[in-house]
Amino acid sequence: MSSATAERPRPAATTGARVEFRSLRRTFGSTVALDGLDLTVEPGELLALLGPSGCGKTTALRMVAGFEQPDSGEVLVDGRDITGVPANRRDAGMVFQSYSLFPHLTARDNVAFGLRVRKVPAARRQARAAELLELVGLPRHGDRYPHQLSGGQQQRVALARALALEPRVLLLDEPLSALDAKVRLSLREEIRRLQLSLGVTTVFVTHDQEEALSMADRVAVLNAGRLEQCAPPAELYARPATTFVAEFVGTMNRLAGRLADRGAGGDSGGNGGSALVEVAGRTLPVDGPAPDGPEVDVLVRPENVAVTADSDGTATVVSTSFFGAVTRVLLDLPEGGTVKADLPSRDADDLLPGVRAAIALADRPVLVVPRATA
Questions:
Q1: In whole angstroms, what is the distance from residue 226 CA to residue 222 CA?
Q2: Angle of CA points 20, 26, 27, to nearest 5°
Q3: Residue 14 pLDDT > 80, yes or no?
Q4: 0.90 exceeded by pTM
Q5: CA atoms within 13 A on the CB side of 41
Q6: What does the pLDDT look like over 220-246, one tens digit per residue?
Q7: Residue 165 to residue 9: CA distance in whole angstroms
Q8: Which of 100, 290, 324, 355 has the smallest count of CB within 10 Å of its CB?
Q9: What are the pLDDT digits (tens) for 34-92?
Q10: How confident is the model at residue 268 (pLDDT cuts 50, 70, 90)?
């Protein structure tokens, strides 16, 4: 993936709100769910909260919805502190992982439920429900009950229901995790299309990196209640700010290396812009600060590893995984450890398990981190 941040499509007319998390802290007993979260979601933006289970991403989402209160800190929408505002008085719509449709109501009545609570006249709410079912691609499913709908259709109804009150903030709590792969792909494209067309500010919680990188304008990576990095997907992938982000987002090889030269301006904790590192038979420039050395680990993406079958090579093919246009090759290294390489599938035909191979790293700057201890 290019280090240049691609320009993403923006909504033609933004109606969404600006959402701010200010120094949010939340604990559950001895567990710290959020530890001083500071983050801003811009109007009309789709921001993904990404991280492992227990990192605090759902807690943050529930604080915007009003289902959870912080121990300290504030949630602001368009500059207004809504931390103490009841959930039913917040201009936010939420779609849950479990759909949470009313089983005794038809799809149309599920969509119109919030409008009925607000005492919108029957004719208007039925017209609005029909309009939204059309918007999510279910114009002929209004009379069906949830048990008569597939999982993907139920999630579309849940999305339409969340949009019925024209919220300025849309909250999505892992809404695709219960769906099969093909439906998940189709629905995430549909959600992105709707979000762009409506211009609604959207916060999307997921643990699926592919979802986050493909859908979001920016991705915020959380770890143990703290924000590690928030950046556009291409920047997050190519220039991770921390070791955790580097190894959590995408696949990363960690190879043993040795700092060869810190350069005139390099130092043990600051600039290492001209530092060099020896790794896998090459000397490469260091991207960013160089840690204390000389023994270090070098982080390399699989697409930056070239592999060729070579009877004199020092690596050994362990396995291959076919992904269509790309094949991932796993190799054992003579000094111990393994390396993953992503190759065009047409170049991997002769890389069978047990074959000796030579590896070469791309001639580009690499991320360097302190050597991991056993």
A1: 5
A2: 170
A3: no
A4: no
A5: 30
A6: 999 999 999 999 999 999 899 998 999
A7: 25
A8: 324
A9: 999 999 999 999 999 999 999 999 999 999 999 999 999 999 999 999 999 999 889 89
A10: very low
pLDDT at residue 249, as a whole number: 93
pLDDT at position 9 is 53
Specify the pairing of strand 92-95 against strand 169-173. Answer: parallel
Q: Would you state the structure tokens that stand for residue 178, as one six-digit string?
A: 């219960």
Q: What is the largest CA-CA distance in the chain?
A: 79
Tokens of 177: 């995790």
Q: What is the 3-state secondary structure (H, E, C) of the chain?
A: CCCCCCCCCCCCCCCCCCEEEEEEEEEECCEEEEEEEEEEECCCCEEEEECCCCCCHHHHHHHHHCCCCCCEEEEEECCEECCCCCHHHCCEEEECCCCCCCCCCCHHHHHHHHHHHCCCCHHHHHHHHHHHHHHCCCCCCCCCCHHHCCHHHHHHHHHHHHHCCCCCEEEEECCCCCCCHHHHHHHHHHHHHHHHHHCCEEEEEECCHHHHHHHCCEEEEEECCEEEEEECHHHHHHCCCCHHHHHHCCCCEEEEEEEEECCCCCCCCCCCCCCEEEECCEEEEECCCCCCCCEEEEEECHHHEEEEECCCCCEEEEEEEECCCEEEEEEECCCCCEEEEEEEHHHCCCCCCCCEEEEEECCCCEEEEECCCC
Closest CA to 253 of 341, 364, 356, 359: 341
Burial class (CB in 10 A: 0-12, 13-18, 19+), 187: buried
Q: How far is CA 213 from CA 26, 46, 92, 234, in A?
A: 27, 11, 24, 8
